[in-house]
Amino acid sequence: MAAQEKREVAPAPGAIRPASSPPRPHSSPSGPTTSPDLDASAVPDGGFEAWLVVAGSIVVLFYTWGIINSFGVFQTYYRTDLLRTSSSSDISWIGSLQGALPAMGGVFTGPLYDAGYFRGLIIVGNVLVVLGMFMTSLCTQYWQIILAQGVCVGVGCGIMFLPSAAVVSQWFAKRRGLALGVQSIGSPIAGILLPIMFGRLQPQIGFGWATRAIAFLMLALSVIPITSMKTRVPRAAKRRAFFDKSILTDLPFLLFVAQMFCTYLGMYVPFFYVQLYSVKMGISSTEFSPYLVTILNAGSIFGRVVPNYFADRFGPIQMLIFTTFASAVLIFSWIGIKNLPGLIVFCILYGFFSGGITSGTLAAMVPYVPNLERLGTRMGTFFFAMGVSVLIGTPIGGAILGNGNEASWKGLIAYGGATLLAGDVLLVVSFILHRKGEKGVDGVR
Asked: Which residue ranges does the record annotate as region Disordered (predicted)?
């Protein structure tokens, strides 16, 4: 009877539907980054164990993307001293390889994470990163540094980066954006500490021992993630394929992947080249120039937390659209900066908004995942595409830079801004199609 029928009450935006409700293909992009296949009451969303996992993930980000964000000091040292006969483009391949492998490795570590091998991945990744840094301290030739810092460190980062990020999503639902933002501050903290550490130690004790000091620091910190991080959700009942075929028919997700490919082509241009730019253009002394990388990463600390806090309120995709657009505008403004105060302000602001891109990427991707059991696999595919972008992005910039005259610097900067702007346009289109899909599903109910 009509009077006795129960009227379905629509959940609040972004809320997780109970198990008895038909699952939605995607969670709402306008609400918190939760997934429809988990019961909100079962997710701790805080507490000692949950934040302990975040603490371990902070350390992993410290010596994965943290060492990548610090590569500007290595780029400058290699270009002006150890590898002075190599071009800027050749040297940037070291940092690009180191930055690409953490993302590209996700296509393999994602399914392994889903299959329950989380702890093994964390241990093996830690060993390789520490070993790679110790081996880098012994290097004197380009090919040696490629193998040690590029491949060994990069592979180690690739093994543990995705699992360390994905496991946080098991412990948080409504506050997931904030947790992922806090987790990501490990990267800029390293970006602040390591350039200063290397810049102060290298002139006094040499490249070898300065690099070994960083390796010893990483060795000590590795105890934290190995002992504090654990999964909450049981391993998948059956092993999943390394590639989720449903991605091929999911146009909004494909566009989301395409926009991040474009964005990461140019996003790291300032991190790799701002220090060299300040020296070559006579804006800063060689003694102060490493602090520009530090300032970039200092701004990034706030950029990784503040936008993610608002993402939980206004939507992760919307916040990513805003931070990407702001970053593109800032890179274009870099063309007109000819003095140190202006360059410092640029580093602070760009660090903030690019930090919002880095920390907001995962939170913005979760609404595109129809089932959290496939989160690792979809993250793997997504990060593989992003890794290819990071791999080729800065070497392309180095090739544009060429001999480093003023026109070449303008070309490099324009390249960075244009790639971010193109990525933002694709993100807007992806968001619109995603919302239409959401409304279409609701209309069928």
From this structure: 1-39
